[in-house]
Write a structure and sequence with these properties.
Elements (H helix, E strand, L loop, with lengths): L1 H24 L5 H37 L3
Length: 70
């Protein structure tokens, strides 16, 4: 019984230990890396916005034809 409890308690300890090791290895991105990531995210936003706009642009007239003016 005590072994089972010990095994259950070991899981959070190992998780915490691994998490601390991971945080210690992490580092902040330098300026060049940050700018590159920001540009990639911005490009993604623009592309997704354009796709959404085009879908809406096509959907509204198509909906008017199929459903009629409500």
């Amino acid at each position: 019984m005590a072994d089972q409890i010990q095994e259950i308690l070991d899981v959070p300890r190992e998780f915490l230990k691994d998490g601390i090791q991971f945080i210690k290895k992490c580092q902040k991105p330098d300026r060049r890396e940050f700018i590159k990531i920001s540009q990639a995210v911005g490009t993604g936003f623009l592309i997704m916005g354009a796709v959404g706009y085009l879908v809406k642009l096509i959907h509204i007239p198509l909906n008017q034809v199929l459903v009629g003016g409500a």
